[in-house]
Write a structure and sequence with these properties.
Radius of gyration: 17 Å
Strand content: 25-35%
CATH topology: Nucleoside Triphosphate Pyrophosphohydrolase
Number of helices: 6
Distance between the termini: 38 Å
Largest sheet: 6 strands, mixed
CATH class: Alpha Beta
Structural class: alpha+beta
């Protein structure tokens, strides 16, 4: 599929409309047997993963002011097959990313648990769009961000100051649509609250919070999207 998004740099997105097509994704129709075989391998490697439902895109375009796209609900197994290199030209991925800034300046990311597909990776709490993230056939990215942050960290974005403008970052691994949120809490208190949430969970997705106070931290495990996001944030601090 053809993508015309600016690659590798963060750009503002004044308008974003992502629509859900109820038809099956062409990738699932074309590669069903390959998807099943790949899922068996993924499941052997990480038995705790679940074959749920996520959105995978068949079209994503940018006209300089508006980001628009069409997605389809697919098996998580289909997404993992695509992510692993299967027929990449047939689909692309987009996810919402809440960039969490503490009141005293640092960013607060999370480290993923060892049982997840992103084991050990550090990024801001996020997840793929799923069927509950669509209102009248259109993706509600802010609702997705709030849900994912609440599930993983116990923090509620509703009590934070949100940047008015979305931004996006397009990489080979997918497109992150970002909104920065500034918490009224200092980083140390956020870390404590996240730790308490993780301790209370029977099967937490994350191991805890990671404080980042500079654009190029000496931290192992940063996800691919993080360097560009960190550069952008520290060069353009919230007002």
């Amino acid at each position: 599929m053809r993508l015309d998004l600016p690659a590798g740099r963060i750009f503002p997105v004044p308008s974003c409309t992502l629509r859900l097509d109820p038809a099956p994704h062409a990738l699932e129709r074309a590669a069903g047997a390959e998807i099943d075989a790949n899922w068996l391998a993924e499941k052997r490697a990480r038995p705790a993963i679940h074959d749920g439902q996520v959105a995978l895109f068949s079209r994503l375009s940018w006209d300089g002011a508006a980001l628009t796209g069409t997605c389809h609900i697919v098996r998580y197994a289909t997404f993992l097959y695509w992510r692993g290199g299967g027929r990449r030209e047939m689909a692309t991925h987009l996810y919402a990313h809440a960039v969490l800034a503490a009141a005293d300046g640092p960013l607060v990311a999370v480290r993923m648990g060892s049982h997840t597909v992103n084991a050990g990776r550090i990024y801001f709490a996020a997840g793929s769009l799923d069927p509950d993230d669509f209102r009248d056939g259109t993706a509600d990215l802010d609702a997705n961000m709030r849900r994912e942050v609440m599930e993983e960290t116990g923090l509620d974005l509703a009590g934070m100051r949100a940047d008015p403008t979305l931004h996006a970052l397009a990489l080979d691994s997918g497109t992150a649509v970002l909104r920065r949120y500034v918490s009224p809490l200092p980083a140390a208190e956020i870390v404590e609250r996240v730790a308490a949430h993780v301790a209370a969970e029977a099967d937490p997705e994350i191991t805890g919070a990671v404080v980042i106070d500079r654009p190029r931290p000496a931290i192992a495990g940063l996800a691919a999207q993080m360097p560009a996001i960190l550069d952008w944030h520290f060069a353009n601090p919230p007002a």
